[in-house]
Amino acid sequence: QVQLVESGGGLVQPGGSLRLSCAGSESIAIIMIMSWYRQAPGKQRELVAALTSGGSTNYADFVKGRFTISRDNTKNTVYLQMNSLKPEDTAVYYCNVGGLLTSWASFREYWGQGTQVSVSS
Questions:
Q1: How do residues 32-89 score in pLDDT, each as one tens digit?
Q2: Cα 70 from Cα 81, distance rounded (Å)
Q3: Helical (H) or strand (E) element with 69
Q4: Is the pLDDT of residue 7 over 90?
Q5: Cα separation of 91 and 99, whole Å?
Q6: Alpha carbon distance 68, 66 (integer Å)
Q7: Average pLDDT, the chain
Q8: CA 36 → CA 46, 78, 89, 104, distances in Å?
Q9: DSSP-derived 3-state class of residue 83
Q10: CA atoms within 13 A on the CB side of 88
Q11: 3-state secondary structure of 5
């Protein structure tokens, strides 16, 4: 069973930084894509950043130049470094991992429980 656990959220002042971590993907045999999404109150969940197994990245326009997604294969962990945070970045951030549990399994996506990021002075 895959259980993704995010950490690193919290309260930060505008302009500050946070690094989110997502662990728990070691049981997924073939990871194809790792992503971060966020959902603010009253809004739909939206993609923040994605990293493919080949190393390609994709960022939402609203975080380009401020956020960086990365992966540590030795720790089976994906990170989201968030710099120059703004109040509008306030949301629950979710980790999403897409892949195959075994080489013959179907592609599935797995979600973490989310971690709250609040940006306020």
A1: 999 999 999 999 999 999 999 999 999 999 999 999 999 998 889 999 999 999 999 9
A2: 8
A3: strand 67-72
A4: yes
A5: 26
A6: 7
A7: 95
A8: 9, 9, 13, 26
A9: coil
A10: 3
A11: strand
110, two tokens: 């797995």
More confident residue, 26 or 40: 40
Contact 51, 34 (CB under 8 A): yes
Report which DSSP code applies to 107.
P
Chain center to CA of 42: 20
* Residue 78 CB neighbours (<10 A): 29
User: Are 9 and 116 contacting, i.e. CB atoms less than 8 angstroms apart?
Assistant: yes
Secondary structure letter of residue 38 according to DSSP? E
Tokens read off for 52: 């493919």
CA distance 8 to 109: 22
Q: Which two tokens stand for residue 15?
A: 């302009």
Q: Cα dist. 32→37, 91, 98, 99, 105 in Å?
A: 16, 26, 6, 5, 13
